[in-house]
Specification:
- The chain is of the alpha+beta class.
- Helix content is about 40%, strand content about 30%.
- A four-stranded antiparallel sheet has the order 1-2-3-4, with no helix packed on it.
- A hairpin with a 2-residue loop joins strand 2 and strand 3.
- The protein is rod-shaped and about 90 Å long.
- The termini are far apart.
C-alpha cells in the first residue's frame, strides 16, 4: 500500500501529465487552425471576379462552386436569352456549419 506522501506524489504526477497533454493538444490545434487560416487568406486574396459576356452564353443551367476552407458555396445559375434568370444557392458552408440553400 502506498503511503500518504507517495500517493500525493502520484496524484501530482497524474495531474501534471494531464495538464501537459492539454497544453500539447492546445498547441497542436492552435497551429493547425493558424495554418488553415493562412491558406484561407491566400484563397480569398486570389479570387478574381470578371465580367461575363452573356452574349456568348447559351441558355441553360450552370453549376459552380468555390471552397476556401472556412467558407464555401455551390450555386446553380439559370441563363435564358443571354440573361441571368436566377442564381440558386445549393450549398453554403461557413466556419461554424454547413447548410443547404433555399429550395423554394
Amino acid at each position: 500500500m502506498l503511503k500518504k506522501a507517495e500517493t500525493g506524489k502520484v496524484f501530482k504526477r497524474a495531474i501534471m501529465g494531464v495538464l501537459a497533454l492539454a497544453v500539447a493538444g492546445g498547441i497542436f490545434f492552435g497551429l493547425r487552425y493558424y495554418m488553415q487560416l493562412q491558406e484561407y487568406k491566400k484563397r480569398i486574396e486570389g479570387i478574381v471576379i470578371s465580367r461575363v459576356d452573356l452574349s456568348n452564353v447559351r441558355d441553360g443551367s450552370y453549376r459552380g462552386s468555390f471552397d476556401a476552407i472556412f467558407v464555401g458555396a455551390e450555386v446553380v445559375v439559370q441563363v435564358k436569352n443571354h440573361t441571368i434568370e436566377s442564381i440558386d444557392l445549393v450549398k453554403h458552408k461557413n466556419e461554424r456549419c454547413q447548410s443547404r440553400g433555399n429550395r423554394g
